[in-house]
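sry for the spam today, last one i promise. struct tokens for design, 494 residues
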């Protein structure tokens, strides 16, 4: 959902996976007044124009906020909507969930798409030993991106042989709980809110108000059921039955996915909640999410983070102390696989479709093989007698090697920026430089890339508020990315 108009359309007729009591508040926030005469969309656009006019030249957010609870301290690194701290990838999910994330003024509404990208990054990042999401959301809209997000988490969580994924719920209702249910563990504070495993769609009938004002609306339609559910007329029996069937189907999908993620629950137990909302825990079992099996443990956010941080440390230490590279895969092979993962993640950020991503994964090994082919110069260097590299010359040579590596990395970034492929695919080039790709890897990406999409390019080249560990303040575009790469290399040698 790329703009508030689409959100308004969703709230006006789309099924919602949201706590019912939260819908009016969100509608008011976005200017959709259910009691006003006329179309809810008309009211929305009127209020939106007034809100935008009052903002003047205020900055409009174009990328998701990357934040963490204040008590965790300064992050070690920042990604696309997530931060890294002590080996833990932290993702805060705050506010209503949409199909596609978008900025509304200086506020960001998460989309299933942006959350999906954030999770893909954390899963692929070798620095992330475990993932911790902090949820404060009333729910969201029905969209295919939600079950896809839940499936991604289930496929890569510790229970499936991946990284530990824990959810801490401050408030997690409906769609937000659906996403959280795919985690290895759900923790909530005693005072937290969980549940609302259900779906809702609201119909507003303005026909009586129009009749009172002497307004007659006559729709001309092709198809008997074309106006079923319209706010211009009373709800017919067929329209009512159709909407109920739609909601029932959404509910079945919801329950099925929750059961996939929560082995401790049964279908009978979930249905028995009747979409009720619960505290994290309560003296009354009928009000307790813990008693209903919706969460695994009750704890504060600090305690929950300490638990996942320890799991991250253990996993990272285990990976570092694993078998020697020769016992499984050569070190060069492991390094190549990590580079390929970074290249594929960068390509996804740049907007390549899935079929191109697949083609790229097949092309990368060939590009790396061509890049690693020894040149005549390399052969000559190998013929130099070993005794010439002894003593002080050996230390000097090692220092020179480090400098050569830095120069090579800076040269690769500059070569990418100056290449013809960068002119055709600037967004992909920017992502390639930021992820430390070589020119050969970037060319392999560009070879399978479709023409750059204008909307995506506009966001990337507009200097979005993305905090990266290698980002330099005040720099934009390809030249800024090259400078950031150079400064990072120099900083590593300081």
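last one done:
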């Amino acid at each position: 959902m790329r703009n508030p108009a689409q959100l308004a359309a969703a709230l006006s007729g789309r099924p919602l996976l949201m706590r019912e009591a939260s819908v009016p508040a969100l509608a008011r926030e976005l200017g959709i007044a259910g009691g006003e005469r006329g179309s809810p969309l008309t009211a929305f656009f009127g209020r939106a124009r007034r809100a935008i006019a009052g903002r003047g030249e205020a900055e409009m957010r174009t990328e998701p906020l990357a934040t963490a609870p204040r008590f965790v301290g300064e992050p070690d690194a920042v990604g696309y909507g997530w931060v890294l701290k002590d080996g833990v990838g932290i993702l805060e999910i705050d506010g209503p969930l949409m199909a596609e994330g978008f900025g509304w003024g200086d506020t960001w509404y998460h989309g299933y798409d942006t959350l999906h990208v954030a999770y893909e990054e954390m899963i692929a990042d070798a620095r992330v030993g475990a993932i911790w999401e902090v949820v404060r959301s009333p729910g969201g809209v029905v969209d295919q991106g939600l079950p896809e997000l839940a499936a991604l988490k289930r496929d890569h969580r510790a229970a499936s042989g991946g990284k530990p994924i824990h959810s801490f719920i401050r408030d997690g209702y409906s769609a937000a709980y659906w996403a959280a249910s795919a985690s290895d563990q759900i923790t909530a504070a005693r005072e937290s809110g969980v549940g609302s495993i259900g779906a809702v769609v609201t119909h507003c009938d303005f026909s009586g108000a129009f009749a009172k004002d002497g307004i007659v609306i006559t729709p001309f339609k092709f198809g008997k059921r074309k106006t079923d559910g319209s706010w211009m007329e009373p709800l017919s029996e067929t329209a009512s039955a159709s909407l109920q069937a739609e909601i029932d189907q959404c509910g079945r999908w919801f329950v099925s996915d929750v059961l996939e993620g929560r082995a401790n629950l049964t279908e009978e137990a979930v249905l028995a909640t009747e979409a009720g909302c619960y505290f994290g825990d309560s003296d009354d079992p009928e009000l307790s999410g813990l008693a209903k099996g919706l969460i695994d443990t009750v704890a504060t956010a600090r305690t929950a983070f300490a638990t996942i941080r320890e799991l991250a440390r253990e996993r990272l230490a285990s990976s570092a102390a694993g078998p020697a590279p020769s016992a499984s895969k050569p070190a060069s092979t492991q390094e190549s696989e990590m580079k390929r993962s970074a290249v594929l993640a960068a390509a996804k950020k740049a907007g390549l479709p899935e079929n191109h991503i697949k083609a790229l994964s097949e092309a990368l090994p060939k590009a790396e093989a061509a890049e690693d082919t020894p040149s005549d110069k390399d052969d000559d260097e190998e013929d130099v007698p070993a005794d010439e590299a002894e003593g002080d010359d050996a230390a000097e040579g090692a220092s020179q090697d480090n400098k050569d590596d830095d120069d090579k990395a800076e040269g690769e970034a500059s070569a990418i920026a100056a290449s013809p492929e960068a002119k055709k695919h600037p967004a992909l080039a920017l992502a390639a430089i930021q992820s430390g790709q070589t020119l050969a890897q970037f060319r392999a990406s560009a070879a399978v890339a479709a023409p750059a999409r204008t909307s995506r390019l506009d966001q990337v080249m507009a200097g979005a508020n993305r905090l990266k560990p290698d980002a330099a303040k005040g720099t934009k575009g390809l030249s800024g990315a090259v400078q950031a790469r150079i400064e990072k290399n120099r900083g590593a040698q300081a």
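The first strand starts at residue 16 and ends at 18. ok im logging off now
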